């Protein structure tokens, strides 16, 4: 099963994305299939292979874990629909809330 997560990063360092979208394979150790970095000006960066070149492959935490601040107080997350993920992937632009 695939889950789509929208992660908000409060006070992200300059140059880092304020929002990150993940396409998570819940049947494969919660590994991300794709992700989208969203920057303050609405531009996006599509990442078709999140783990390419990674030394360590890390599963994506659940929305409950992210909202329990297991990974830091600055992260908040919600589940989104596949259609929202795909629309942003295709348009390469984000006009939603930060």
Features:
single chain, 98 residues, five-stranded antiparallel beta sheet, 2 helices
Given as residue ranges, the uncertain stretches (5+ residues, pLDDT < 50) are: none
Overall outline: globular
Physical arrangement of strands within the biggest beta sheet: 4-3-2-1-5
- Count of individual helical segments: 2
Distance between the termini: 27 Å
Alpha-carbon Rg, integer: 13 Å
What structural class do you assign from the helix and strand content?
alpha+beta
Helix content range of the residues, please? 10-25%
Biggest sheet statistics: 5 strands, antiparallel
Mean pLDDT: 94
Number of strands: 5
Compressed to H and E, one letter per element, the order equals: EEEEHEH
Indicate the proportion of strand residues: 25-35%
Organism: Anaerosacchariphilus hominis
Protein name: DUF6881 domain-containing protein
Domain DUF6881: 3-91
């Amino acid at each position: 099963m695939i889950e789509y997560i929208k992660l908000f990063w409060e006070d992200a360092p300059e140059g880092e994305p304020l929002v990150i979208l993940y396409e998570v394979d819940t049947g494969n150790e919660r590994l991300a299939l794709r992700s989208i970095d969203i920057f303050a000006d609405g531009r996006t960066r599509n990442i078709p292979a999140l783990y390419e070149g990674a030394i360590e492959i890390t599963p994506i935490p659940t929305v409950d874990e992210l909202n329990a601040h297991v990974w830091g107080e600055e992260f908040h997350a919600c589940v989104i629909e596949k259609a929202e993920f795909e629309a942003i992937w295709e348009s390469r632009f984000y006009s939603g809330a930060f």
